[in-house]
Design a protein that fits this description.
Strand order of the largest sheet: 2-3-1-12
CATH topology of the largest domain: UDP-n-acetylglucosamine1-carboxyvinyl-transferase, Chain
CATH class of the largest domain: Alpha Beta
Shape: elongated
Strand content: 15-25%
CATH superfamily of the largest domain: Enolpyruvate transferase domain
Distance between the termini: 33 Å
Structural class: alpha/beta
Number of helices: 13
CATH architecture of the largest domain: Alpha-beta prism
Largest sheet: 4 strands, mixed
Helix content: 25-40%
């Protein structure tokens, strides 16, 4: 969506889900004067930045989702100027934007701070380009630097760049529209600046984290036989290899994945790593599944060591999960029982829903607004395949 703002003519993005983050980012972009039309029935989003006049992303919108900080790179690319509030998002762990800012500086931007806003300026309206090495590798910073450098005056090199499918897809879409980006899917991106990005179609890929979540949910429940459609197994990286250790039935064909769960789950330990390693966005779901395994397993998060807010809530449901620094140990076969639990972020939310599906009795998951940021119509999809989930609107 941010990249579409770089185009000289309207862009249509396909396969766009109905998520709260989509609607929030629509509003972030509209503030600039960009026109957006979301065809929910066709899952298509039109982005027309021809009327852009305001190069700011305000705090009251940016605080709702961290990805709004992509506006910095997009506006630098469009106009050579951006005034963007420091971001918000899920409330866990420190995730500073220093890497983004250091990267912008390396590409030639002047960076200042003003009352919680980042002010980024490009000399003479276009960045000169430069070289920057990520430490650590970061999807968000890689994307932001790509957005900022696509229409620069010179050549930019991003080393230790993120290799996630999301980044590759972004680069491929931009290249089809006139960008010159080499090395997508490798640790080094080379971007030769161009003056124009044409309008046209940007194709959005399926969400590999949604795919992985439903794979884990199916494996967690004995007797499940679930087929996922419109997905890409190739984008899952090493997750498929790890998943195979569960010894469930796994049948992969083009854009479909079928999972047939066994009655027993072996304990399988995981450690998160940058792509193609095990995703940090699936570790909470994996820990939840391991409460059903026979034996002990460990989950270590090297990416976000504070991402364990779900642990006390799983234990409220009868789990046997202990945490030490960036590692949790799960003793399975604990027998989950329904209770009232509180979700604190997107992946913790879906994990608690999964736990409730496996628990005896009724489970109440509070603060589920997090779910709607990253899962389209979660309860409808799960109820379609046998779950019993009701969403209850709380009175103001």
């Amino acid at each position: 969506m941010a990249a579409a703002m770089l185009a000289d003519d309207p862009i249509t993005i396909t396969n766009v889900p109905q998520l709260n983050d989509i609607y929030t980012f629509n509003n972030v972009i509209r503030v600039t004067g960009t026109r957006l039309e979301f065809d929910e029935k066709e899952s298509k989003l039109l982005v027309d930045s021809g009327g852009i006049y305001h190069y700011e992303a305000p705090y009251d919108l940016v605080r709702k989702m961290r990805a709004s900080f992509y506006m910095t790179g997009a506006l630098l690319g469009v106009a050579g100027y951006a005034r963007v509030s420091l971001p918000g998002g899920c409330a866990w762990g420190p995730r500073p934007v220093n890497l983004h800012l250091d990267g912008f500086r390396a590409l030639g931007a002047d960076i200042d701070m003003d009352q919680g806003y980042i002010i980024a300026k490009a000399p003479d309206g276009r960045l000169p380009g430069g070289t920057f090495e990520m430490n650590p590798s970061s999807v968000g910073a890689t994307v932001n630097l790509v957005l900022a450098s696509v229409k620069s005056r010179g050549t930019s090199v991003i080393r230790n760049a993120a290799m996630e499918p999301d980044v590759v897809n972004l680069c491929e879409n931009l290249n089809r529209l006139g960008a010159r980006i080499e090395g997508a899917g490798t640790p080094t991106l080379t971007i030769e600046g161009v003056e124009h990005i044409s309008g046209g179609i940007m194709n959005n890929i399926p969400d590999r984290i949604e795919t992985g979540t439903y794979m884990i949910a199916a494996a967690m429940l004995p007797g499940s036989d679930l087929t996922l459609t419109n997905t890409l197994e190739k984008d899952l990286g090493s997750f498929t290899t790890t998943f195979a250790k569960l010894k469930t039935g796994l049948d992969i064909r083009e854009d479909t994945i079928r999972i047939r769960a066994n009655d027993e789950l072996p304990p399988v330990s995981v450690e998160t790593a940058i792509y193609p390693g095990f995703p940090t966005d699936l570790q909470a779901q994996w820990a939840t599944m391991m409460t059903r395994a026979r034996g002990k397993s460990t989950i270590i998060d090297h990416i976000y060591p504070d991402r364990f807010s779900y642990v006390p809530e799983l234990n409220r449901l009868g789990g046997d999960v202990t945490r030490h620094e960036n590692q949790v140990t799960v003793t399975g076969r604990s027998g989950l029982k329904g209770a009232s639990v509180m979700s604190t972020d997107l992946r913790a939310s879906v994990s608690l829903v999964m736990a409730g599906m496996a628990a005896r009795g009724e489970t109440e998951v509070l603060r589920v607004y997090h779910l709607d940021r990253g899962y389209e119509k979660l309860e409808e999809k799960l109820n379609r395949v046998g779950a019993n989930i009701r969403r209850i609107e709380e009175n103001p």
